[in-house]
Amino acid sequence: MGKIESDSIANDFLQGLLKGDRAKCSALAHEYLAQNPSIKDLYEKVFRVALYDVGKLWENNKITVATEHMATAITEGILNELFEQIISTDRTNKKVVLACVEGEKHQVGIKMVADMFEMKGWESFFLGSGIPTGELIRFIRQTEPHVVAISLSIYFNYANLVKMVEAIRAEFPEILLLVGGQAFTRITNNELEKTPKLVMLSDLNMLEQFIDTLNRK
Ligand code: B12
Fold it and tell me: Model's pTM, two decimal places?
C-alpha cells in the first residue's frame, strides 16, 4: 500500500476519533488490514500518525482534553479488538515484560511494542502505566523474562528512567533492557547509552528487525 493511501486512511481515522465514532475507526482499521495485512504498518502509519495529530490539536487548543481522552480510549479499544490477529501460533518460548517508566501515563506506544513481540511468538506481559519500580522488579523476579521493555514519552520522566534502569540492572545484570518512546528525540545527553545490555529503539520497524535477530539466536 502506498504512502498516500495510508495518509488518507490516517486522516479518516483521525476524523473518526475526533467525532467519537468508534465503529468507523474500527471499520477503517479492518479495511486497512484487508488491503495491507500488516499490523505494524497499521500502528505506525495510521494509529501513530492520527494520535500525533490529536496531540498537535490538543497542544494548540483546537480540541478539548475530553476529546483527546476519547480519541485515545477508542484507539486502545481497537488495539484490544485486534488481539486475535496478533497472537502467533509459532511460539518462541521467550518472554518479555513491558511497562512505562514510573510517572509516565502514555501507554499506547508500549502496548504496540507488546503486540509486536506477541506477533513474533513471544509471551508478552504488558503492565502499562503506573507500575512502581519495586513492583516491576518483583514481577521480573517471578516471570524471569529475556527482555524488559520500558517506554518514556515525557522527557521530565527521564531521571525516573535512569533510576529504574539502575535498579533493574543491579538485581538482574544479565537481562536485556529495551527502551524507547518519543521523549528520546528531546534528550541530548543520554547517559543511558553507556549502560551494558541496553538497546534503544525509536519505532516498530526497528523493533521488528531487533526481534527477528533475537529469534534467530
Ligand atoms: C494520549 C495522550 C495523553 C494521555 C495518555 C493516555 C494513555 N492511555 O496512554 C494522557 C491524558 C494521560 C496524557 C497526559 C499528558 N500528556 Co500527553 N499525549 C497524548 C497523545 C495525544 C497521544 C500519545 C500516544 O498514544 N501516541 C501514539 C503512540 C503510538 O506513539 P508513541 O508513544 O510515540 O509510541 C511509538 C514510538 O515512540 C515507539 N515507542 C514508544 N514506547 C516505546 C518503548 C520501546 C521499548 C520501544 C522499542 C519503542 C517505543 O513505539 C510507538 C510506535 O511507533 C500525545 C501526542 C503524541 N505526539 O504522541 C500527547 C503528548 C505525548 N502529551 C504531552 C503532554 C505535555 C502531556 C502532559 C504533561 C499534559 C499535562 N499538562 O498534564 C501529561 C503527562 C502525563 C504523564 N505523567 O505521563 C505532550 C508531550 C510533549 C513533551 N514535552 O514531551 C504530547 C506530545 C502532546 C503535545 N503535542 O503537546 N497524554
Answer: 0.97
